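Handoff note, outgoing to incoming analyst
You'll be picking up this chain. Sequence as last confirmed:
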Amino acid sequence: MGTKRPLSKRLWRYYLRSAERMVKVFRIINITFLVGSTSVVLVLISLFTPLFSQAVVYVLTRLPLPTMPSSAMSSPPTAYVVLGGGLTNDNNNQIILNGYSLNRARTAATAYHDLPLPIVISGAEAPWLGQWLLEHGIDGLISENASMNTCENARFTAKRIPLNHVYLITDSYHMARARRQFALNGINSTPLSAPLPVRRDWREPAQNLTHSRRAVYEIAAYLRDVIRPQNNCRQAQEVSTEQLLTPRGNAVKTFN
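Most recent structure output, in case you need it:
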């Protein structure tokens, strides 16, 4: 019969094994903390460079669209649809297009002069968008004045005029969410992205941060639309054709 090891030796071995396990645990914690903190720092830095916003746009443009009718998938674009991006006030306190809406109007005008197609302007900004386009030699516009968010843009545009496939004009961050809403209403879209009022520029951290904020907003809004659609999107039957055609006067829309 072998003799049992002294209690002190057994305790000592148990202590050593426990210490080794604790060292491994602390090593994992240190590595996790190092990787996590480094990732956070890199993300925060990227917010002030073009990297973050460019990465978000890259991902957004590759998101799948809902299934659409075969007619929408097979037909070419037959119109431009310009989504309003908001209004602001000038130095005389008069309502005017803000930078987002103005750039979308400019993008529509450029595209129209290259390929004349009907232009549908959607949103509370429609009267101001229409006026700007008229002043730049584009008439025969089709207005939808009732919508107050992206979901309504799609629903009310589909009610306003039969469309299968359109050139959709908004900014690149908003494009994925807008295309998804139009697809849900049976309208295929080819994106025409309008620039933001400020450019990405490695030498301008504040401008890059503007893009990053826009990107974060659209990520959150897209996830909201998928997981829990907004409850302030009216059904098409809740709005009359007369309402679609009625200018909203002094209505001011914000991003939603």
